[in-house]
Amino acid sequence: MAKIVFMGTPAFALPSLTALVGSHQVAGVVTQPDRRAGRSRRLRESPVKALAREAGLPLIQPERIREDAAIRALRSWAADLHVVVAYGQILPQSLLDLPRYGTVNVHASLLPRWRGAAPIQAAIRAGDCESGATIMLLDAGLDTGPLLAKRALPLAPDETGQSLHDKLSRLGADLLVETLPRYLSGEIEPQEQDDSQATYAPRIKKEEGRIDWTCSAQSIECMVRAFTPWPGAYTCWSGAQLRILAGYQGAGRAEAGQVIEMDGNIAIGTGDGLYFPTALQLPGKRRLRVAEFVNGYHDFASALLDR
Model confidence over 38-79: pLDDT tens digits? Predict the structure, then answer.
């Protein structure tokens, strides 16, 4: 049984840590420090920290993984392998090479497609037919290391950032525990990536959620799904930020951003086709079906958005 140090922070990493606890010796866990969050700005521990405490695992939370104290802890754990799943810090090559079998990563895409921080949202936003999980050896580059295993997952027509996140977190964990014994025994020969096929998914900024109604209805529909639940897709109406929570594309024409009534539904003009919202939300208000929203805000049915 291999001795493993696990590095991870958000909920995406939980299935992988749970699977490793049941199949290997987890010598220690590294996660991000507690952060202030919410309106109360109270300190909150990461999901990985909560699970590690519950499992009674040794835990460190360095502000920077390069700190001397963190390096001493990693050396003292003397792991055969480090496993990284959405940890949130870049590891120097000296730490990647510390365990004798190197450092393995679970990545939420079919590398080399969608290297970077936001592969889940990128796949949906681009209209990809599939995504998947990759097990790779980390190197000093951005998701450029050799591949150990990949498994594809078809995307549902109504796939959202949240639903794909949940699917890939489980898929990645399953693939991880299937791959590690074969890698550690020498059965798997790491395969170099084809850099010419690489695409990039940079970290998403909140302001990217603002809808550009001159884009096509298809691209807007993909964006709304990709940005559910964060950062959310929104537009401007009557001086307020109106969140578009769900909808679908359809045929027809109207001025970009113009709200019209069509066949008993509400549609919004785009650069190509119409977008039919089905759920909307104003700041501080509850989510409303579009019919409820129009009943409460009659002037919306003829509004010009993002003005």
Answer: 777 788 999 999 999 999 999 999 999 999 999 999 999 999
* Residue 115, both tokens: 């290297």
User: What pTM, to 2 d.p., does this model score?
Assistant: 0.96
DSSP bridge pairs for 116: 201
| Model confidence pLDDT, tens digit, residues 94-149 | 999 999 999 999 999 999 999 999 999 999 999 999 999 999 999 999 999 999 99
